[in-house]
Every structure is written in structure tokens, then in C-alpha cells.
Design brief:
The chain is about 35% helix and about 10% strand. By secondary structure, the chain is an alpha/beta fold. It has one domain (about 1-470): SGNH hydrolase (Rossmann fold). A four-stranded parallel beta sheet has the order 3-6-7-8. A two-stranded antiparallel sheet has the order 1-2. Strands 4-5 form a two-stranded antiparallel ribbon. It starts with a helix and ends in a 7-residue tail after the last helix.
Amino acid sequence: MEIVFSIVFILSLCSFSVSDGKPDCTLEQEPKLPSVTNKTLKHPGSDVAGLSLPSRKKRQASFISRPVTMVRNSLEIMSDITNYFIQDEDRSQCKMESRQPFPCKLRKASPTIPTSVHKLRPADVQVVAALGDSITAGVGARANSVLDIFKEYRGVSFSVGGDKTWREYVTLPNILRIFNSNLYGQSYGITRIGSGKTSGYNFAVSGATSIELAEQAWRLVKAMRRDPWINFEKDWKMVTIIIGHNDACTHVCNSTLGVDMFEDASPPTYARNVQKALDILQRNLPRTFVNLVPIADVTMVLDLLDKPAHCYPLHWYLCPCLFDPKFSNKLSKPQMKKVLSAYMNQLKNLLASGRYDTSTDFTVVLQPSLVNGDLPLQQNKVFNRRLPDLSFMAPDCFHFSQKLHALIGRSLWNNLLQPVGRKTTNWEKDVPFLCPSKTSPFLATSKNSAYQRRTRTSSLTRDWWSLVTAGHADFSCTL
């Protein structure tokens, strides 16, 4: 039965051409300027609508597309019924107790708005945004079953989600809101794959590849420039970018399964695509701190030996370069790791060139939160060995569950404070939140890290120890 649901899910992602009736199973594409609803960019605490972009002209339904729409609607109804009876708390983080304080005590903003990105404190960040693919869109993050994995849970996305608070959902914005309660731009709620809808300034598109990143960057610039709630020239903005999972999974092996087999996903081309997007932001988005996050190790899904039956066809669809021997030159685990390493090195070289350190109001920092992340293990009775804990994955065994988004959100926050060259590269459990200190109050950049390296380690160690001694002993939930 699970396999049937998986096949129906894959078919529901396909669109059909009105002119020739041919199926197009390309991972969902976004129109150039999809509509952004009033709810999306409404200023916190205000009933005034923010931005409204031109809506997409609706395509006339054909006799073939109507059944597809019916399938999608049926899946949503089945999903709602399933969720009514099934509440899978195992894929969500433990809830922090209300009396459990966030460990950081130094929360004040700079006395005056800083003019240098190298003297930027967490509380100085006014606007958050994110670009990328389905990981940033939050696909399947709070899904209870395979029927839910066509939903994008943007509100819990680790880099830009704003649902509830850090006690329920650890995300970068929910942490930043502790420092600045007027933070703006975070995404809320749920959208559906292929709908073209976004939330807040989460402009990530499920299925996007690096070649589409420049378009997302332009959309972000135009949207922020039009937004009456943003002081475009003076507000400090933080943009988090993670892109490349679809390059590696569907293009690097020249797959022909519903994608453009001629799209170049080689590491040099991948870096050039990222560079184009960063150049757009540098030239058009003043006072911006960019987090460039290298992609996760997609080969970790090869270790899921006890995955449910429905995950097999989904892996074949989501990452044919690893799983589909018929439509691609399937890569081995070492071969894929070599590609991912080359992607990472290309990004390092791009930033090491100093291309984005030519002004004081813009910088790009590599935040390697995902690079060496491994899923936590648990004992498996069938295999009589410790295997990756599937509760950290969405029901498709590929995307991240909210529990993993929380770990990555904390890791990304810690990366912000760690000096360049000394950043952690994983999302380990039971790791405390790092905090700014009097000696190292600023977000780490390539320029301020050299000076702070001598003091930052000792001050952060004290914060670690303070949380370990005061936190782990008293509170049951520590992630």
C-alpha cells in the first residue's frame, strides 16, 4: 500500500502541457514573479499589507490536468484525515520548558546602527531572508505520513522559519528574535510544492538548481526594495543561501528523468551560478550579511538500511544519480562524495578570492553547518546494530524532519559566532547554544575573526560550560 501511495505522490508532482498533453515530471519550476499574498509580507503586529507582486496567469485546465488536480486534492483530504488520527511527535524536537531561559545574556543591539558588517551584533539584524531549494522550503518537515510530503513547512525551516518560538521550533530567526523582537521577513505556515507561493522572505523553490539562484536573488532585491516596512538603505539584512542538492542528485550524472540532461552541474559551473546570485546581492542589496551554507551529504541516505518500502521509489525519483540505474549513470558513494567535496572547495575558493570583502556593508561567510552532519544512531533490533534514526528524516527518508531542522538551526547559529576557519561542520546532538560575549560581541566575518580568535575561544567555552552546568541538570529538553 505504501508503494501505491508513493507512485501516486510522484504522479501528483507531474504537470501536463495543455498543448500536447505530455507529462512533465521536472521538479517544480517557479514563475518569474509568483504572487506573494498580503499575509506573507505583513509587518509583525500590523494589519497593513506589505508587498503584492503580480499574480501568475492561470493556465486553462485540460482534460488531462483535471484528473491530476483531483488526485492532488484527494491526497490532501487523505492527508488531513491521517493527521486527525495520527500525531507523530517523534519527528518534532522536544519542547523546551517555559522556565528554561535562553543561555545568552548579552542581547543588546549596538548603541548606534553599525556602518560596518564586521561590527554587526545579532540584535542589529532587522530583516532575514533565504534562497535555495526544498530543504529551505521545509518540504516534509512536519509531515506525519508519506501523504504529507508534498507540503512545504516553511514556518519551521532552520534558516528562515518563524513559527512559534525557539522553545517549540529552533530556527535561526526564532533565536534572533530573542535579541530583536522586531525581526522581520521570517516565513510562516505551510505552502504546497508547485503552487508558486512563498511566505515572508523565504524565496526558496522546491526542486531548484543553482542555475535558478540568480532569479531568486533578483526577486529578493525587487521585493525588499518595494517593501514599505523595510528601510532599504539602513536596515541590516541577513540572507541564508543553500543550493545544490538537485544539481548533485539529478544533473551531475546527466539524468534524463524529466530534467534537462544538458544542464551543466559540474563544480566550476555550480560555483559560477552561485557567484552570479551573490554578485546580484552585492551590487543591489546594501547592508547585507550572507550565510552561504554548503549542501548536506546526500550519501547519508544510502545508510538507511531499515527504511520503509515507500522510500525506495521516492529515492529513485528524488535522487536518481544515487538510486536510479536505468535513467542515469548512477554514482557510487565515493564518487558522489567527491562531487560534494568539489562543490565545497569551489565555494571556499570563491570567498577566499576576496570578491565579497570590498566594502564595509556587505560580506559573505561560509557556514559549514551541514557538511559533515551524520544522523544520530539508534539500536535496530532487526539488523542487531545501530542504524540512523529515521525520526530525523521526513517520511520520504530524504528531506529533513523538524527535529533535524532544529539541530541544524542551532548549528547555524553557532556558526555565526565561531571564527572563520574554526567553525563546526555538523549538527551534533546535546551541543549547547553559543553566545556573544563582551570580548566577542559581533557576528564572525573573515576580517574580524583574525582579531577575535585570541579571545573568542575562551569566552565561548565559558558560555558552553555555563549552559552545561546550569541547563542539562535542570531541564529535560536540551535537543
